[in-house]
User: Fold these one by one.
Assistant:
Number 1:
Amino acid sequence: MAPLGDQLVQDAVSLAEFVRSISGPCERRGGTFAHRTSSEKFFAYIEALADATQSYLSRRLQSTAKPRDLLQLRREIASLRISWRFLHQFVKPAIDADTLNLPDALVQGLSVRFREIPLFRETDFIFIHSDRFNYLNVTLAVFKRRADSISKCVSGPEFPPNLSIIGIPYSQSSSLFLNCLIPHEMGHYVFGELSLGIKFKGELESELLTRIDPGNPSNIGDIVELLAQWIEELFCDAFAVRLVGFCFSAAFAELFDLARLLDERGKYDTQKSRDGAEFAEYPPDLLRLRQQAMRLERDGWWNELKAIDSQYATSIVAAKELEDKDFVCPALFSEHSMDPVPVIQSFFKILPRVEIELEQATAGLTSSSRGWSAFSDGIASCLEHGVVPSSLRDEAGEPSDVVTLLNSAYRFYVQEMPKLMLHIAKADPASISDRMHWARRVELWTSKAIEDVLLLRRKRHPAA
Amino acid sequence: MTVLSKKIIIARLGLPASEAKSLVITPLLDEDCFDEDSVDLRLGTHFLLPQIPPQPYFDQSGSRFASQTYLHLHAPLGDYFVLPAHQTVLGATLEFIKMPFDLSGEILTKSSVARSFMLIETAPWIHPFYRGCLTLEIANVSNTSILLYPGMPIGQLILLKTAIRRPPEKLAGSYVGPVYPEAPSPAPPREQLLGIGIDSYRKPGHGWVHEGAMRKEFHETMNALTDEHRESIRRLLKLLDRHGCFPGDTPIHKLLA
């Protein structure tokens, strides 16, 4: 076998090659495709970290001679490789998510809206493509721990502050309306940054211990973990509604086909909806929708929502009538040999805290329904006539805003597409291909309007 | 035809978009964009760059003509796009335009742009009631590369009164509402020629196709056969088709359908 020093040179070269294969695409990205500023920061970070890793390996090899130190270096190389392997999974998906393969206008608009929250004025999001159908938030604490372990070892740069990573299904990279689900992932960032998980776990555990006999302590721990996940999901839903209004809930109802659970009167058959309820990391869909409906009412959307003639709006309105007891089903928690009643009671006791935390986290954020009365009908009229709805002004001469555009356009998309198609020669509202074509046009006009109002607002309020 | 003045243009812009006489130009980012008889338009952020095609000519009859012929690129505001000397690219105006039913429009290269030997339009006429961002056929006819910054003023829109008295009942045309440059979607030459009664044409790499005569003789021959023989021939033709013996857009497909 070759001397240990020579083996270490080979190990270091192998790692350096591996690191370069990850950072290489970042270095070659310029020219053809554009990326968001946040992604550019991420690529620059990866490049700098790769350079620092290579320099570190060179330095360490030159300065290490004793066998004991060489063995230590071998362990460091192995550890670095594991951390780089972790980073590997994010780089290509981030490069794939160039501005033509993202709902770029929506992402810009949502980021601007997010930064209206005083606590998060500096935050930005890196978007990556995901091969899973779910949207996902990369847990920043986990990501930073791995990335910063490399930085610490090789004296490289730290992961840029105030950046988070969101994955969107690659198949949804150009749609507008379904991507109204993105604010939920932004909610995960807020939940993590404010350490709300720890807070809620403590509260859940105390509450559970007052109601159930802790015969098996590990069971309590599992249930607390599960319910804390549910709380996080519900917080993120409520956050999304607070940020963008009913278009989030409509996209949610659309994606999960929740209208299938409605009977002919437009009410939920609670027995039928329980059938699918299983022990899972996500709370029941109808519970999620009910909590969103309650948030929508608080944010001033209720009358508008009730007036929308669409199965998605009906799904939301009907969900608000569900009661806590509708979510206690025998199958739930059966894996944990738990009586579901006290568990659910504890959960519902804590649930109002979600709203309190949400109010605190989003203090200073304007209501999502603020621009509705001034602009929604005008936006619908523009879309009906095939016009980008960015030329509208309110009495103060202000253009519309991203949230009002999204909600108004969503209402148009679910309720008024035939009106637009009646103005178009040879367009058949009952034809799937025609409808898809014009729905795509409505998405493009809305996206263009979002870009336009962001420009117009920047021009009017340069300091904002 | 009368060229509209700034005052009338602004009055038309003030009408609701739903009115047939309304004019929409959005976003209007600069109050100085109005001249006495025109409105300045800016360059948008999306481009379609002609690529070296995978076959030795532009085959307009191919179903994937647009995706194989153009590369879609995005240069966000602040970034630039390099247009090499003697090259062309499709761009679009940043502004979305909705024309009134009684006005036509013309887009002209801004003189400052034209003097750097860049042309933005070879099909400058805008029909009444058109709506969309205007696709620009940008050509750099100079001997050096030119940097195109999206957002830069690039054209002037002139509006002209027409004698049209009534708005059309419906919007027509294949280019309704584009917000990015759109690749052409011309009818295949074969169909355009059939429309004027020409049913023979020369196919590149293939030779003359006498479609009308072929159809006639094919049907005559098939009609003379028994059902069983007809079915056998169809099966044979489909076999040949399945193994790629007929080019993609040959009329044989219509006969087999």
Number 2:
Amino acid sequence: MDLNFLDFERPIAELEAKIDELRFVGDDSVVNLTEEIARLRSKSESLTRSIFSNLSAWQIAQLARHPQRPHSSDYIQRIFSNFEELHGDRTYADDPAVIGGLARLEGQPVVVIGHEKGRDTKAKVKHNFGMPKPEGYRKALRLMEMAARFRLPVVTLIDTPGAYPGVGAEERGQSEAIARNLAEMAELRTPIVSAVIGEGGSGGALAIGVADRLVMLQYSIYSVISPEGCASILWKSADRAEDAAEAMGITADRLRQLKLVDEVLKEPLGGAHRDIDATAQVLKNALIAHLDGLTRLSLDELLDARYQKLMSFGRYKED
Amino acid sequence: MNWFDKLMPSRIKTQRRRRSVPEGIWSKCAECGSVLYRAEVERNSYVCPKCDYHMRVDARTRLSMFFDEGSGTEIGERLAPEDPLRFKDSRRYRDRLTQAQKETGEKDAFVAMSGELFGMPVVACAFEFRFMGGSMGSVAGERFARAGNLALSRRIPLVCFSASGGARMQEALFSLMQMSKTSAILAKLSAAGVPYVSVLTDPTTGGVSASLAMLGDLNVAEPKALIGFAGPRVIQQTVGETLPEGFQRSEFLVEHGALDMIIDRREMRERLASLLAILTRQSHPIGD
């Protein structure tokens, strides 16, 4: 796979280009360049390691939105078996910005739901860049209610810039659709594990993210508003997105420190897109472990713990 | 500020009722421009007597207009905001808070009270839009949860008047989580058969509309209130769609099935009392 490098990865990109050049020369030349290539390889790796050991919130946001970042469909394909996609909200339409269906996780029946951004231009348009309309949230709720009916745990994968801000979406009750999911998920009678795999964009993310356990991939982000949106309101300039990203503490590690996230899942060196299979395996192990813990609880214990968790969110003082 | 106000300790000062309409004998309607006699506007529930424009009112005025005279005990009044992220944009969150607290006399953008409506016990709460745009942070979420819990334990109706731009950015993800927190308590009320009436006033958008404001057994709005998930400016910018006439106004939402009804503020007390009495199977509370 041709890697697509971000701005802050430029030094790595230059090294990799050099390696490619040598390999090309190496193919039809008598000179043995293996040693030189190996040397550059290890240099590239240590450079990557050093750059990635000290990423800013904004750089992580760029990784979370990386054009090659694996999407829900990439993970569903690798983590689940017997996946059968289910369509439609039974009322208005099928929204491809949310995909979901019945599947097995290591043999265990589950319902899996995720935002889907789409890969190439055509797919992106079809999936509306992962920005759901009300019918997407209503489809998700329909599947979750079915999951509870048949006692299937729910796994949700979060990856959206946010709920779609359009005329039709407003007409059909975007606010109500999100709010309804929040209320219903709070009391859904089956375990829910949510994983932020890329972008957790505000209410549009939370609408499938009320969960017993919330995990985040290392280079994913979760925020109340996009850094650009926050910057344009508070700094009066979208160019200050970098500052906004830092101020809002949108990264997995920071949110773990603030106890808003239960676990951070390590990604391969350079990010999930460098080794999708390995990332999928890490995510799969985490999903299994969390669901295993949750299915040991009685339904009452589960719902009580979820309620306590939801009520515990917030920082305030009381004098 | 006169000399007496200056001498009074701040704790007492905040107990005073504040007014959103500027002081003075005359005020001007922001909609039709008519110059109005202040006392008349007040008597008219801050609705313009000329054009029926519903002026924005602050949380305490709202609640005192709603409850029976002299009733109203505050819930969670000792809660105050924190700054868990040490948030700073062009200004520090702490400074913004201090300023908003000074300007409004409130600790945060949300006030909750228990009281009576035509003799019926109810819990009612209201957003303070002048406090950082009525944005919902941890204090608003916790006060709402406590108000909901009180309604639940006493099995009395909950009413919330929303006026908010959405979740508070300065508390970042903590604010987002208030959406699920407030929705979770409402799910409990719903399961227990305790009525919740959401009254959406101008403006109710973002995370507040996408959580507690849309979850009423009854969703009611004041006339011509701006209500939506995304603000009209955002929709115009990101999508480039032209917005239809009256888009995201109360009347538009009734037409599209999101609201049960629009109630004129001057009838709010009577109509809600009548509705709540029916939902709680009590006799009609008004009359004699």
